[in-house]
Amino acid sequence: MAVIHRAELRPTKLELLAAWLPGRRWYQGHADADVVRVAAYRFDDPAGAVGIETMLVSAGDGPVHQVPLTYRDAPLDGGDDWLIGTVEHSVLGQRWVYDACGDPVYVAALAGVILTGGGQAEEFLEVDGRLEPRETPTLVSGSGSEGADVPGISEILRVIEDDPTLVVTDSVQLAVVRRLDGGNRLPGAALTGTWNGQPNPMPLAYVSTR
Fold first, then answer.
1. Where are the domains of the chain?
2. Cβ atoms 67, 13 nearer than 8 A
3. Where are the alpha helices (DSSP H) in the chain?
4. What keywords tag this UniProt record (predicted)?
5. pTM (predicted TM-score)
């Protein structure tokens, strides 16, 4: 379950991404193009400590890019290379925002969703102390099966930042598709998604055991 607060962020997520995206080798678009949100989905952190959100964004006439993010209330140990920036959240205070491909909490959540045939977290909006269900047009689904074995992930060994971005751990290897143009079709269990304007399932990520 993901709880969404009615809050102001300074800078906004899109402002952070507008400054960060042009420096990525997999980014395709003009450096000064406005970054626009296309869709988003979230996963649960079982410990309830880390926010996990994947944003799908476009810039100018470029393709839709997939950007998984994690939000933390303190810096990620050893995560300097993956820090996108910090934001001031009007409810939660200062938050550290990371490229989630370098965050073991996201990597474990993604592998689990794919291998067990799971989906995105249910979203609830906090309104006057109450939690109200929040409808989202974005639906993601793993190709695995409920109850499947999910290997434990104790560390990320390396991340190869390309399209797709490869995340190698001690037990699984993941491939996170960055440019959602339908060009990346890989073997292995997959996460696919649909959203407004994309009614046919689009491959988003893959996982294979090592």
1. 2-209
2. no
3. 13-20, 104-115
4. ATP-binding, Kinase, Nucleotide-binding, Transferase
5. 0.93
